[in-house]
Design brief:
The chain is mainly alpha-helical. It has two domains: about 150 residues, Orthogonal Bundle (Tetracycline Repressor, domain 2); about 130 residues. Helices cover about 75% and strands about 0% of the residues. The chain contains 15 helices and no strands. Helix 4 runs parallel beside helix 7, helix 6 packs antiparallel against helix 7 and helix 7 packs antiparallel against helix 8.
Amino acid sequence: MEPPLAAAHPDATTSHTAVTRTRGLVKLVRPNQWVKNFFVLAALLFSGKALEWPAQRAAALAFVAFCLVASSVYVINDLIDRDADRAHPSKRFRPLVTGAVSVPAAVVLAAIMLSASLLIAWSVGLPLLACLVTYLLLNALYSLWLKHVVILDVFAISAFFVLRLLGGAAAVGVRPSVWLVLCGGLLALYLGFAKRRHELVLLGDASADHRAVLSRYSIPFLDQLSVVLLAVIIVSYIMYTLESDTARLVGGERLSYSTVFVLYGVIRYLYLVNRRLDGNPTDTLLTDKGLLAACALWAVYCAAVLYRPW
């Protein structure tokens, strides 16, 4: 009689367990969400310092710091919300819910990433550290209270993106334009309310079981908000390209022509939300070729105008 596979190949079983645990840890920190932290690099692009090594180094460290602190927050939130996540059609497969990652391992991982992020921010400068600490405090307030308050829950999410912009500016050592901060905050609001719409459609009558605040939203209300925010975002961006210090430094109206990429991007996202029911901003951005092309062309055009390679 042949021995069972596990007994015959204990090394293979151990290796499989290690691979499963590693995959669970990677999934837990959500590296796909790090795309949000490209907001940190906006100040570097528009500061005129993107070709200077000290600014590049500081911005890169700020980006890494925000990636680590964001991942630590994801882990902490998953620890807190693992019971509620069992009622969600996709979140119920998260590593802490399925048991792929143990609670002690998640706690240690969160502590390591949080400590590393604060040390990196401190090495760059106190202004960046202050932004990171504020980000953490706001996340704590969001988890304890704001995520249960209609409208304010999405405003808090928008504030996280504004802090990324401010953190990037602090790292590079420039004063961010009020128009740039407005554009970033309004865009985050737009994406946040679209995500709420997606959750309502996806969960249906069970939405309140996963997140109680969803029961206070309605799809018509969120659709109206999308239209209003879409208009304000475009106006704010046009004002930035015409009235900011960066626009004056460039001279002329060339930077304003990048509005076409922004306009296409936000309309494309609205189209996807309403047609395919895609509402997760990160997943939609990473999977839709039209959005990826718009973002890439916007960045290339702005860089070309700002740094004039010809």
